[in-house]
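Sync notes, pocket subgroup
Present: LS, DG
LS reminded everyone that the earlier model was apo-only. Rerun requested with adenosine-5'-diphosphate included. Inputs:
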Amino acid sequence: MMEDDIVRIIRLLTDNAVKIFRADSGFMTGKIKAGNSPGLIYKTSNFSESKHKFKTKMIIPIEYVNHSFGNITLYFKEHKPIAEGDQALANTLGNIISQAVTISWMIQKEDEMLRLTEKQKETEILLSQEKLKTEFIANATHELRTPLAIMKGNVDLALMPPPDTKTMKTALEEVNIEIKILSEILKDLALLTSSSQNIKNILRHSPVNIDELINKVLKRLSTFAAEKKITAKIIKVGKSNLLILGDKGYLEKLFLNLIKNAISYGRNKGTIKINLSKDKNMVKIRIIDDGIGISLEDLPKIFERFYRGDKAHSAHGSHSGLGLAIVKWVAEIHGGRVEVESKEGKGSTFTVFLPAK
Ligand code: ADP
């Protein structure tokens, strides 16, 4: 409530006081703001400065809990004996006015506090976004440095005199592997740093058959699965086509990351089950492995960018720790979500929910 509202209350009550006591005019003096010096706050339109014309004067003190805001003074043209009841009524009216002003002050203070906390919240959000950005850049730099350092080491080795074709070839092969890793990291980074507006422009929505998509991903990963002698099984519940409206390329990336992880962290000669079903208006895809599982400590962090569990360092292949961050991100830009359940030593289940078409 603004100061204008307080003035409005005072005006209304002064005008009403004039009416209640059948006075000819009235005015209020006092202060409407804490710390303000008292002065004339309001006078009725017919108020005249020449007090001589008035025969009776009545004072309404504006007081509340030992706090005085001022007085309303009423003028009467005729002699008017002020009855005891009138004075009691006047005191009550003064009390009401001061309460109204006090409440207005309190609301005003609360509004100010609210505005302040909103500003604080905005600043906190900006600061945390800034912190996330800094962390992201630091992590990304670190990730890019490793393959670069390995490449540098191999190039140095290849250039060492005397020239030796065999050493050079081995070094170049190592460089080639690191270039592949580097370009994968750069692709993932580009994905994760795209702004939501850019993504909306890039996304190409079309009906995607989840059954077909998962089969395609399994085919791509078949050599990798064969290396660990892992078998993958798709179990479909119900006969209906599981269709979602989405971007095929991004959705393929989502399932590729999840199934690749299931193989990476899966047990040698183990099984990966992929359950497909419909849950209300969502298509539900569960990827169940019987591998190393995830510790309770790691579980809440695995979807963070660059997070790698301890065991991942010794696992096969390149592990940037970006895979699950991309999974979560792709699910969310499609209006879906990912959930995980896991028991260390027993295996993990990742469940993806995507809106059905
Ligand atoms: P990474 O490149 O390290 O695999 P991800 O983001 O895909 O990165 O996964 C983050 C971490 O989550 C992994 O380092 C690993 O510790 C854990 N993780 C992911 N999937 C599984 C799984 N199926 N079983 C066990 N641990 C997993």
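DG: Confidence is low (pLDDT under 50) at residues 313-317.
LS: The domain at 134-198 is CATH 1.10.287 (Helix Hairpins).
Action: DG to write up.
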